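ESCALATION

Customer reports they have been waiting on this structure for their group meeting. Please prioritize. Original submission:
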Amino acid sequence: MSFDSLGLSAEILRALKSQGYNNPTPIQQQAIPAVLQGRDVLGAAQTGTGKTAGFTLPLLDNLSRQPTTNKKRRPVRALILTPTRELAAQVGDSVKTYGRNLPFTTMTVFGGVKINPQIEKLRRGIDILVATPGRLLDHAQQRTVDLSAVEILVLDEADRMLDMGFIRDIRKILALLPAPGKRQTLMFSATFSQDIKALSRQMLDNPKLIEVAAQNKTADKIKQKVHLVNKGQKRGLLSQMISDNNWNQVLVFTRTKHGANKLAEQLDKDGLQTAAIHGNKSQGARTRALAEFKNGKTRVLVATDIAARGLDIDQLPHVVNYELPNIPEDYVHRIGRTARAGHSGEAISLVSADELGFLRDIERLVKQSIERVEEQGFSSTPSPEKQPAKKPVKFKKPAPRRDSGRNRQANNSSKQANGSSRQQQPRRRAA
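Update from on-call: job pushed to the front of the queue and completed.
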């Protein structure tokens, strides 16, 4: 199947050909016709399978076929919500790339940058707005954006929005939009959870359900390995693997911002060009670090889960979980940064004894056992299946407590008092 057969306009097809895209991915094959028909869509697919184009292409096509009736001002006609700045920037670039032959203005708004330039651009009129929930509500409170005429709403990475606690913000934004049935709503996610399905029932009107991969399944072309290692030896093992295997582009995940900074500094001292990205970094620093990682100037990029959302690197060969995530679904998102666009990739997890519970949860979620590997010279921890059973702890029965003479005398007095009080009470008649 080619893009020509999906019913997209000539302007969009020209933009696709200029980018070298000829054949749609499975999610695009199913989503694009449904969106073009005006239907609400609830779509799930493995990370890196083309979800962004799956909603961006038909969104642009629908807007071009239905010109706005409001000539006095240019209201926001399409709103795309994403959980992170990086993902917002990526989606915004895709909208501009695919819509290069169409007369639409696109804008991306997120926090971490000055708001005044965004206000000035919004006042000039925007057709398609890509935004993170927090900054969008900032604009709504200042009345610098009008969402009452939105025709198409997209929630990208909806599962991650719920994980990050955006549900309250999303509900506030929904109150500013036309009601379901008066707008087209598209919800896309890498995984389907019961929370996502419950949210979709509130937001979508008779949606078409599209799921091109098994629920929470990891990409088939990702080779997954677990290295069992003591926590104090993780950094040494990681540094050795990168150097000995001559890895030139490695994305490493840590659980905290402080951990990302510390690991980046240590790897840099080991002679590996390393940068860190996380929520405390300025947007300029994050953009610069990502650009240098993509062009090969930086060899290792250390990231937290939130900052890594939206990293779009087609041929990223290696992803390393320096620390396992405590939410199993995050493992699927993390390793989905590799093996994108048909390429193969490797995902390695460095697992210490205190993370074995996380590992079991992950294997239960992805419904597979991940290969264990031991590296020579590094101590390993026992796998969950081979952990020795704990011996039951035996408690000695405490010796009877001896009362002092004074306590015995007090107890005897108490017993006598109780006895006399019982004798004075009248007997109850049997029923």
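Sent to customer with the following note: The longest strand covers residues 222-228.
Escalation resolved.
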